[in-house]
Amino acid sequence: MKHLEVQALTKHFAPTAPPAVDRVSFGLEQGEILGLLGPSGCGKTTTLRMIAGFERPDSGDILLDGRSVAALPPEKRRIGFVFQDYALFPNRSVLNNVVFALHRKDRSVRTERARELLAMVGLTREQNRMPYELSGGQQQRVALARTLAAEPELILLDEPFSNLDAALRESTRRDVRTLLKCAEMSAILVTHDQEEALGFCDTVGVMHAGAIEQLGSPESIYLQPETSFVAQFLGRANLMRGHARGEVADTDLGTIPIVPATEGPVLVSLRPEHIELNRLTPGSTPDGGGEIVSREFRGHDLTYRVRFNRAEYIVHTDFTCDLTPGTPVRIVPRRPAVVLRETGLCGRSVVALSSIPEIPRWIPGQYASA
Ligand code: ADP
Ligand code: MG
């Protein structure tokens, strides 16, 4: 039996509009951290609010340890919620914020338990400060201590790191993951940040237009995306049309290996770091030769745009492959391209547009993150 089971949750806000959440199903083991990842407006918060009991589903069920909690009010579900904006009491000290959440415990043990929880989140020295005297990351850890104080079965985190600046976000994320794992706490993290989902979660569900489009380990959703949406939302991807013949496909890039093996017309995705560039002798442009259009130094890698056969490809290489624009190169896949099911496209990647005319161009801002 799963610790949490979400079964076909559906929610309409307006009868004529498409559902905000559309038959969302997934399971969660005890101690597992699951991510719901997707662009703004895809239904992540609504899903979380239905699990917490703040929103009533039109249909579907929510089982905690095999028992339906769908009819229970939020306070009876034993589910903790950590909000994006921390929601601390501004006029209570850090310690009292946590003590307040322990109101069900005997008065004599509250302060001691609150101190233990603050020690767990590394805020012993800050316990007598007021929330405004803390950094955003520290406030988020108080919020977590306060949520843990209620001894929930499950913690729901709605974009909890998005108000933190980049450096603090990374360390807070690491701390919170360690804390959840030490407490063997099951959790669901909602985020629009793919790096966060990949690094923080054991399992990730990629949401698109109210539905979960793919659910799997971070590695599998990144390396084996099933749809063009998933391929593009999880970083950059070169998408190409081609004709499959078993384990290879004929594409504008030439005949390249594909997974899984199939036959007939296909749309495939090749990650920029799964391509190698081989320099060709200047002047020679034999078959398979492209040209570097641009070079962007990004510290940890170099990003090239390479033109070949009227299409442009994006390629990430390490520091050993340093090429200037205009250099003739051969584009060589280092891994098989992944065959996709076609669905809506989003705009996080370079698409070899000339080779897939029926796919609309990315509209800037269409999938802007909240
Ligand atoms: P996300 O958290 O992924 O950004 P939400 O779950 O907040 O998405 O919203 C999903 C969709 O439902 C959006 O189109 C949003 O406008 C709509 N929505 C959310 N809450 C309400 C509400 N209380 N009333 C009407 N529409 C809502
Ligand atoms: Mg949201």
Lateral strand order in the biggest sheet: 6-7-8-3-9-10
Structural class: alpha+beta
List all distinct small molecules, including ions and cofactors, that are bound in this structure. Answer: adenosine-5'-diphosphate, magnesium ion
Head-to-tail CA distance between termini: 35 Å
Main beta sheet strand tally, sense and closure: 6 strands, mixed
Beta-sheet strand percentage? 25-35%
Q: Low-confidence segments, ≥5 residues, pLDDT <50?
A: 344-370
Per CATH, the architecture of the largest domain is 3-Layer(aba) Sandwich
Q: Which fold name is given in CATH as the topology of the largest domain? A: Rossmann fold
**Oligomeric composition of the shown chains:** single chain
